[in-house]
UniProtKB/TrEMBL annotation:
Protein name: Putative competence-damage inducible protein
InterPro entries recorded: CinA, CinA-like_C, CinA_C, CinA_KH, Competence-induced_CinA, MoaB/Mog-like_dom_sf, MoaB/Mog_dom
NCBIfam families: cinA_nterm, PncC_domain, PRK00549.1
Pfam family name, one: MoCF_biosynth
PANTHER family, alphabetized: NICOTINAMIDE-NUCLEOTIDE AMIDOHYDROLASE PNCC, NMN AMIDOHYDROLASE-LIKE PROTEIN YFAY
Organism name: Lacticaseibacillus camelliae DSM 22697 = JCM 13995
């Protein structure tokens, strides 16, 4: 069985985005023993997509159309495929209910183009979208399978792993299940992680390992095939133990859609710890990351954005002369900020961030230099220096995740003594 992938989107042809979906799907197909012999990229044009489908039919058993399932006028994939195959579009009721619930929550009326997201070619099997609103579909016509998948990677990857791969396994008649376990790491780059696991990757058969880059962190997917879910989990357990033995210091959680902030909030709840923060270079981004997690209001009551030395002193009740003397980006200032925030907010633990995001040095301190402080009731205040690469956004993003990781390790230490 061989496959052809057709990625749809003018933005790829213009070089505005990279077709990462094609590489991701090709890897999954390869793991299943399905050859991906050709890939095409076409713009948002129905006639050209129709021609691409016809070309793929001349040489492939499985035809995948990636993207173009959304509600905008340039999202034409499902309409084009349905017309090409001579079938109607029909509505998936669970997806329609999800659309209606979303519209109610957003207080807006659905238009006809919104409704298209819940539609699929008649006779197809629906591939549910656990993250977004546009359903995927798999349709068999005269011995050939056609698959529609969404374009956004955050929707595409879960649909491939959780809906498409099981459907393909069933189609192939393997009588097996495929179970994946996603491990998330912070503080280690992909190249170093791969180096640490080099022998495991070289020897992999079943289970397998694959790395994926996320913003300022790395995920590792362990996948096993077996006759049952329990048997697959049993294959994964010893592999994970070996991975944790080597990389446990960087590990923070499981799952495709997990985050450092979510892990922190869960740990705050388990330890009944109230947190606050004082931020300089990140300007509230750390607090915003925490606030994105449902339930955080029980453990985060507020914090401080103190961009200048004057606001550091005024908001946190610090001695500005001492801050000026030590420098805004220093161990002393990071500690003082954390202690001041802890006292003023009446929290159990406080984080502080101060540094130089760039693009150039500031007051003799190199861009990318960040001090992160942590103060907690009943223990000495600590501060650590970090040197993050990248532009302003990258330095700030890495600083937020580093602070969250430091806080998570502190809370995990607390759990051991609860």
């Amino acid at each position: 069985m061989n496959a052809e992938l057709i990625a749809v989107g003018t933005e790829m042809l213009l070089g505005q985005i990279t077709n990462t979906n094609g590489a991701f799907l090709a890897k999954q197909l390869s793991d299943l023993g399905i050859d991906s012999l050709n890939q095409q990229v076409v713009g948002d044009n129905s006639a050209r997509l129709d021609a691409a489908i016809a070309l793929a039919e001349s040489r492939a058993d499985l035809i995948f159309v990636l993207g173009g399932l959304g509600p905008t006028p340039d999202d034409l994939s499902k309409q084009t495929l349905a017309k090409h195959l001579g079938v109607e579009l029909v509505t998936d009721e669970p997806a329609m209910a999800k659309l209606k619930a979303f519209a109610t929550q957003q207080h807006h009326q659905m238009t006809a183009n919104n409704l298209l997201q819940a539609m699929y070619p008649a006779g197809a099997t629906v591939l549910p979208n656990a993250v977004g609103l546009a359903v995927g579909a798999m349709l068999d016509v005269q011995g050939r399978a056609y698959v529609l998948l969404p374009g956004p990677p955050r929707e595409f990857e879960p649909m491939v792993l959780n809906a498409l791969v099981p459907a393909l396994l069933k189609r192939l008649g393997h009588g097996e299940v495929l179970v994946s376990r996603v491990l998330r790491f912070f503080g280690i780059g992909e190249s170093q992680l791969v180096t640490e696991l080099d022998d495991l990757i070289a020897q992999q058969t079943n289970p397998t390992l694959a790395t994926y880059i996320k913003p300022y962190e790395v995920t590792l997917r362990l996948t096993a095939k077996a006759g049952s879910e329990a048997a697959a989990e049993a294959l994964l357990d010893p592999l994970e133990r070996e991975v944790q033995k080597r990389l446990g210091q960087y590990f923070y959680g499981y799952g495709d859609n997990n985050s450092l902030a979510a892990e922190v909030v869960a740990a705050l709840g388990r330890t009944h710890t109230v947190v606050t923060a004082a931020e300089s270079l990140t300007a509230g981004a750390l607090q915003a990351a925490l606030a994105d997690v449902p339930g955080v209001s029980d453990w985060f009551k507020g914090g401080f954005v103190t961009y200048s030395n004057q606001t550091k002193a005024a908001f946190l009740h610090l001695d500005q002369k001492q801050i000026d003397a030590a420098g805004a980006v220093s161990e002393q200032t990071a500690k003082a900020m954390a202690e001041g925030a802890l006292k003023q907010a009446g929290a159990d633990v406080a984080l502080s961030l101060t540094g130089v995001a760039g693009p150039g040095p500031n007051q003799g301190v190199e861009a990318g230099t960040v001090w992160i402080g942590l103060a907690a009731s009943g223990q000495p205040t600590s501060a650590s220096v970090h040197h993050f690469p990248g532009n302003r956004a990258a330095v700030r993003g890495r600083a937020v995740k580093a602070a969250l990781f430091i806080l998570l390790r502190f809370l995990q230490g607390r759990e051991k003594h609860v």
